[in-house]
Design goal:
single chain, 347 residues, alpha/beta, Rossmann fold, six-stranded parallel β-sheet, six-stranded mixed β-sheet, 13 helices, 15 strands
Length: 347
Amino acid sequence: MSDLANSATPIYQRLFNAYRADILSHRLRPGQRVDSISQIQVEHGVARETAKRVLNLLAREGYIVQRRGKGSFVADLRPKERIWGLVFPFYSIQYEDLILETANRAAQLGREIRHFCNYNSWEEEIRLVGIMLHQRYEAVVVIPTMDESKTWDFYSHVSPHDSPVVLLDHTMSSNSFRYVIQTYDLGVTRAINYLLGQKDGGVAFVENELWAGRNMVLELMRGTYFDLLRKRRPDFEPCVLPRGSAVRLRDLRERGITGLFCCDDVSAIQAIGRLREQGVAVPRDFGVVSYGNSDLARFFTPPISSVDPRNAEMASILVDILHPSVAATSPVKHEHVVLPELIVRGT
């Protein structure tokens, strides 16, 4: 329990917040006994009325149940809601597509999707997941933040009797959960190899700096890009641009770059626009490939060559393993790997 000293907040409120945090983070699990009035008095040095007030407030808010003569226990809460929560670390057009695909399929089962962004914060991730478990969402789907070592303790305390937690899109499959994973390294490899096969120059990697902070998607993409370029074009220094609008023809030509791999479709459209402004034809002078294959890539002129993450397949698998008749009987650890596909179009 966090330090309760040196705060202007009343002690009963600080104790309430601390116990509530332990319940939401599953350090205290449903059915587990909570400290008694006398235990709270001794552990925290507070008056009996303060300890009693803390327990009464926890009970009133639905976090514990008080049983006369037996004590207080973490509430084994109401029946599960027909809601699936989706927690993702940052906004991208690709995730928007994945959310829509999942929501459409979940609706066919009479399930509602509620999605939340944790802004690439592992603290916010476990807070959101904890609230969903406490509110009895039927299932929770998480696209993990960068530092999974920080969330390991939380997920290791999630009970198999809780709502199923599925880790989606990218993760190190080191713990016992259901997974639906896409292999970003394969998608990037196919894109880079295609661009290198079209022209003799180097390839630049265009990121999207609006994605919040360090994140696993860009780390995976960037690492694969560096490794592959050094193997295939050792004479060309890797070049990473922060966004599509940062494309400068003079700089690219000085570096001998003839291809752009963009982390998403928005960045690709920005890059193509900047090249056009500078009198460059795509794909005659420069090749451009994006990652995402959203409507933006398909309906842009010319249509953009793009890595399809196969969101429809990911959503279909996700819904299959969360279907109530399957989730109740399937193994806790259940892994599915989706292989991205390069769709070659007009760029």
